[in-house]
Amino acid sequence: MTKKAVAAAIAAGAALVAVVCLGATVFYALCMVVVPLAAAAITMLLFAVVALAVALTYLKSDEPAEPEADETYGLGERAFMLFKQRPILGTAAALAGGWIFLRNPALASIVAAAFTEKPHGRRRR
To answer: What is the C-alpha to C-alpha distance for residues 110 and 74, in angstroms, rounded to an integer?
Structure first.
């Protein structure tokens, strides 16, 4: 389970770098044709249209929603389920978490402990 979450985080990071590089490439290519301010506006508009198309594609899903179970999941399992069910939201959450870790590295140990913690079931007496 942890390996899948790590792979998803690495894929999200690689996708972010690829999108930033693509944006820079489009911007500089447009700068050769139009003024830089117009190139920035066109690049932003292009990425907004692509983001809207991706969002509408995921919102139009014909799959029925999975029923919620009363089982207790750990933080790692819930994070993996978030990436599986809502990849855009999961990627945004991972990027926000990475930004928080950069700002306060002490949180990394707390979150690592939470990810490795096993869910506690009901104990019988």
So the answer is: 14
Q: Which two tokens stand for residue 84?
A: 């599986």
Is residue 90 within 8 Å of 82, Cβ to Cβ? yes
Vertex 61: Cα angle to 60 and 64 (nearest 5)? 130
Specify the DSSP element, H or E, that contains 16: helix 2-31
Sort 77 into a burial class: Cβ within 10 Å, 0-12 / 13-18 / 19+.
middle
Does the global pTM surpass 0.85? Answer: no
pLDDT tens for residues 7-51?
Answer: 888 888 888 888 888 889 999 999 999 999 999 889 888 888 888
Q: 57-91 pLDDT, tens per residue? A: 877 766 555 655 556 666 667 777 777 888 777 77
